[in-house]
Amino acid sequence: FGDLAWVPFTYSLQARYLVDHDPMLKWPTLVAILGVNVMGYLIFRGANGQKDAFRRDPDAAEVSHLTYLQTKRGTKLLTSGWWGMARKINYTGDWIMGLSWCMLCGFESIVPYYYAIYFAILLVHRSIRDDHMCQEKYGDDWGRYKAIVPYRFIPGII
């Protein structure tokens, strides 16, 4: 059901809203929204790219400066760079991009913000589920990692 009905509805809602509601956004507003999208993209791609580069070759020049927690399983959990700021910083960037798509519909109705609200709930739930799985996977090392990287999404806040 989800792939056939839920996903197409969720991803096309803003476009459908714009068919009947022109928000008449001014250029400065559009530039600001573009800035929000670019910020989200840079966070999302920067974090995922950093993790991928570290996994491929931790000694590569672009990532060799990063600190990490060596786990008892033999894996390394990044504790600096993007991943030292928040454990799910990539989710934050992804959500920011989604919010910017909603913002293009203006600010008169909550309807086009359905995606951002739904996606926030999905990401929070996913992060809780991931946290439980990582606790099982890493044991005591996960608690040590969370002490080093205490924030889940937004550094210094949550």
Description:
The chain is mainly alpha-helical and 158 residues long. It is built from six helices and two strands. It has a two-stranded antiparallel sheet. α2 packs antiparallel against α4 and α5 (114-138) packs across α6. The radius of gyration is 19 Å and the shape is elongated. It starts with a helix and ends in a 10-residue tail after the last helix.
**Mean pLDDT across all amino acids:** 96
- Give the spatial strand order of the biggest sheet: 1-2
| Residues in β-strands, percent | under 5%
Total number of helical segments?
6
Terminal residue distance:
33 Å
Low-pLDDT parts are none
Order of helices and strands: HHEEHHHH
Task: Supply Rg.
Answer: 19 Å
Structural class, from helix and strand content?
mainly alpha
Helix content: 55-70%
Tell me the number of strands. Answer: 2
Summarize the structure.
The chain is built from six helices and two strands, in the order ααββαααα. The chain has 158 residues and is mostly helical. Strand 1 and strand 2 (76-78) form a beta hairpin.
Pick out its properties.
single chain; 158 residues; 6 helices
Summarize the topology.
Elements: H1 2-20, H2 27-56, E1 68-70, E2 76-78, H3 82-85, H4 89-103, H5 114-138, H6 140-148
